Amino acid sequence: MGTTASQIGKDRLAEYQELTFLTKQEILLAHKKFSELLTKDERDLQNIRVPMETILTLQELKSNPFRNRICHVFSTSDIKNGSLTFEDFLDLLSAFSDSATLEIKSHYAFRIFDFDDDGTLDCGDLEKLVNCLTGETDDTRLTSEEMRQLISNILEESDIDKDGTVNLSEFQHVISRSPDFVSSFKIVL
Hints:
Blueprint: H1 5-8, H2 10-19, H3 24-36, H4 52-55, H5 59-62, H6 67-74, H7 86-95, H8 102-113, H9 123-134, H10 144-158, H11 168-176, H12 181-184
Helix pairs in contact: 3-7, 6-8, 8-11
């Protein structure tokens, strides 16, 4: 059974279309997916939060190495637990949609990679980023020397002001030279 506009409310659907990069059909599909994560009783509640552990059962996030960070970045929860409301879920899907701009995508990518949420990508953030991408098993983990060299290379390429970190504008500069970024930074329901 599909989600219909009347289940969301026509006014609310129009509002979501204005606030996101998503089409009406994508919003309806998102609502259907989100509703499937709720119990029958929860579906009638406004602004219900779905725990991060439940969100991470979605096929689209299950194998993403940054799945926990994605939930934390898009969650509006005061207790910072990664839980999402439907509006949070729409924001997430909107940022990862094909229609989102390079500026929006790079902004959220930066926030996802900024593991300590301090507004810069420092050596600690870059190490965590590399470990997420390579996997953290004994077979895939870089040696400390390989990691040091890789982080040094990343900073050499990206750290324009040479302060030992990558800020948002430096990150966006690097991303602007990466033609595959926009097409690879997406989640499709």
